[in-house]
Amino acid sequence: NKKNKSIIFLHGFPYDSSMWDAQVELLKENYLCIRYDIRGLGKSPAGDGQFTMDSFTEDLLTIIDELNLDKPIICGLSMGGYITFRALEINQAKFSAVILLDTRTESDNNEGKIKRQNGIAKINKEGVISFVDNFVPTCFWEGTIKNNSELYNTVLNKSRRSNAIGVKGSLIAMLSRTDTAETLKNINIPTLVLCGEFDKLTPPNVMQKIADEIPNSKFFIIKDSGHMTPLEQPNVVNENIKNFLGGIFS
Ligand code: MLT
Asked: 248, CA 20 to 30 Å: which among 61, 128, 134, 158?
């Protein structure tokens, strides 16, 4: 069976699993591709909205167990990366390789925590559309917004339909998350680290440091991209993933 290897994708905040359309299209022939909308985002129900990074991580580990996945490759972007780091910290033996895009290990500092709280206040006062209208532009490279307005508007319009409870719950999960930097030196499975050249949220210098600390890692900067590399430069991201996985599993 060609598909004895699986790969599980974790999207960023406040987006959904369609972020990985291009990667799944590339990989589905040879890999069992699993992606889902993180609780409270996309089409996943928000429930009471009381999320933590550990509850998101528990969802991931439960899905892996329920689907009987044998050491999937884990691929996470930004908040998906926060979940990935926490899952590796809890049980690295569950995974065979890691792909990290546009993410960080540090937890929020005071300024960051206040920014999240202001985000929650904004949603309470003005609604979720007002929040995403402010947030989404910071995720993209200006060049993408200008030259690929169709992509940008599709993502923005979809984000505008986000569930306020789910978005607020994710903000609280992010502002209360632990720092996972200590786990980097213990990651002993092959790791690919990718970062958009113009990523303002998790810039290349932050990700370079992550790659430097992970013993068996490769780091590439994705040109002409902001924080949303799989969407802004799908072909380049795919090429990097293909080379990385080809080198490990061929
Ligand atoms: C994300 O893309 O998941 C978020 O930008 C992460 C964050 O706000 O820390």
From this structure: 61
The token pair at 78 is: 């930004």
For 96-129, the pLDDT digits (tens) are: 999 999 999 999 999 999 999 999 999 999 999 9
Give bridge partners of residue 35 from the DSSP assignment.
9
| Buried b / exposed e along 3-34 (16+ C-beta atoms within 10 A) | eebbbbbbbbbbbbbbbbebbbebbeebbbbb
* pLDDT tier, 23 (very low <50, low <70, confident <90, very high otherwise): very high
Q: Which ligand 1 atom lies nearest to the CA of residue 108?
A: 9
What residues flank ligand 1, with Cβ below 6 Å? 12-13, 78-79, 174, 201, 227
Identify the pLDDT of residue 2: 53
What average pLDDT does the segment 73-91 reach? Answer: 98
Joined together, the tokens standing for residue 31 give 């890999």
Q: What is d(CA 229, CA 77) in angstroms, rounded to the nearest whole number?
A: 9
